[in-house]
Amino acid sequence: MVKKQLIMDKALELFAKQGFEATSVQQITDHCGISKGAFYLSYKSKDELIISFVDCFMKQIIADIDSSVKDCSHSDDMLSTFFYTTNKAFQDNSTFAKIFFKEQTHTVNENLLNRLSYYDSKVNDIILYIIDHLVLENEKTKFDLLICIKGFMKVYVDLFLIYELPLLDLDILTKSLVEKTNILAKYSTIPFITKESAQILQDHIEGTDNNSKQIIELIEQLIIEIEEPIEKESLELLKNCLQSENNSLAIIKGLLENIKNNPQCKWVAYLIREKYSIQQ
Amino acid sequence: MVKKQLIMDKALELFAKQGFEATSVQQITDHCGISKGAFYLSYKSKDELIISFVDCFMKQIIADIDSSVKDCSHSDDMLSTFFYTTNKAFQDNSTFAKIFFKEQTHTVNENLLNRLSYYDSKVNDIILYIIDHLVLENEKTKFDLLICIKGFMKVYVDLFLIYELPLLDLDILTKSLVEKTNILAKYSTIPFITKESAQILQDHIEGTDNNSKQIIELIEQLIIEIEEPIEKESLELLKNCLQSENNSLAIIKGLLENIKNNPQCKWVAYLIREKYSIQQ
DNA sequence: TATAATAATGACTAATTGGTCATTTGTCAA
DNA sequence: TTGACAAATGACCAATTAGTCATTATTATA
């Protein structure tokens, strides 16, 4: 629906300037040139807009990062691909990124907090997948490495978002981050985060895990929305695969290839890839 | 004034739960058991409370970190001292720390943002002082190292603040962070942040620099407030030193020793130390 | 005890908030 | 042209906000 998109686009600008809380529905509707009532025809509440907003961006970004990493033919490229794609994603969606990093730690909204930590755990999964393909000096530093990689990301992204430093060369940034990570992997010996404390971190996330039923619902929705015949058919076939639990990974993998480049399908492709641990 | 302290103590609890914006003056006064009018006898506005609040904690914390680093007899200890003192400070003031890290990137309040970036630049100064005493593989990675150290701090502090991971062993955390930093210093070759971009970062901070006049005003205020005779006399003498610009660093250094352990004097001691680049 | 000075109160204002709903406007087919 | 239905409006509501100020309570002084 075109009105929904308009509201999101305009809300994006206001949220970036002021954050979620400080932006009123009135401001959004004024900025859209529509009435307050019209807003509530598109979204049940301000909260629903915020959640949709975060979902929309995070699904794209995470699916992009995951697919770029999982598509690496050599495990040597993973780290570099990860840093490049991640920085690129935040650069391309810099207005959203600004909001995301601000609200991540701040918001009081319980609903939103759960969403954010859900996506955070997905990022952790991707990074841990990469770390498992690195050669570590001490296997026990694994979770410290995870934390450090996230620290690198956070702090370099801050440079562009808070200090508005112009991003000159994404390639150098990537190389610099890859080097740092590899150095830590190679020479770190003193872990701080144990497996147990890592478990505590993971337990924080409530199980919004994706069972087949939820994925099938997503697929059905997409089948209605999507025009392209190949994507449509692939989705139908994927739906069948998920319903009859006897299915070939090869077929699923092939079908995913057909849909994964369609922006609307990215997220569902990611969920299925994750469900069946499909890589490379 | 005792009422001011009461308000701060109670506000601390509410701010930690809800943040600055979401906490109303009414809530604070209810929590204090005083009337709304009484609040405005102590603080001109909610904004003034917030600024005082941040000032109060940050001055203590930064003065502590700086003095612990500058007091190191061996430059080998600096890094470890820095990480230990910093983590300890955030642990001891964990309620404040939680607020600080949340508001740092979020707040819309221009006034507050300026304060926060002022203190941020002070932390940068301390870290750069430490880095100047490290042996770097490539001198050009200096500013990247600064950024990484800040990333380490941010992300490990988050563990305790957001995920509420119990902090078991501060010594191990310190050792782990020291190792990581030393490794990066020793092996990093690819800088991303140039001297020029570092300059851009520094230029962000408006010059709230401390000239003698401001420092003297602070001293005069302290002389009135403070009881202890030695601190009082030392402050008087320091004031004279600052007024007559012909002064001996040795005398100033000695006088600072007399006052630096008094919580009320810490900040002014820090400012003087910084003004005359007094170390060790 | 009487007077002056200070401290504290809480009802009040004006503005803003998210959200509602009776009313109006626009767009069709008949 | 009419009538039916959907889309859009914005005045309105109850709640909440920061901040004020005439009034009252408390304390110190004479």
Automatic annotation (TrEMBL), chains A, B:
Pfam family, one: TetR_N
Keyword Ribosomal protein: no
Alphabetical list of SUPFAM superfamilies matching this protein: Homeodomain-like (SSF46689)
Domain HTH tetR-type: 1-61
Keywords: DNA-binding, Repressor
Domain of life (superkingdom): Bacteria
Residues annotated to bind DNA: 24-43
Keyword Repressor: yes
Name by which UniProt lists this protein: TetR/AcrR family transcriptional regulator
Organism: Psychrobacillus faecigallinarum
